[in-house]
Write a structure and sequence with these properties.
The protein is mainly beta. 0% of the residues lie in helices and 55% in strands. A 5-stranded mixed barrel has the order 1-2-3-5-4.
Length: 65
Amino acid sequence: TNADALIGRVGRVSHAVDNAAGIGRVTIDGDDWRAVSSDDTVVIPVGQPVEVVHRDSIVLTVKPQ
């Protein structure tokens, strides 16, 4: 699907990604996605570029660039 094409893409954090708090949003090509970090110990701040490493339905798993 087109959503699978998101894997490997780079986006920017629009709302800090914090797995412990259950929050996080990433913008890619103007679309806003719910996001979780690939590393539970890392909080990714707003503005940080991230790479999509996995997609589960409407939730993207990302890692810092």
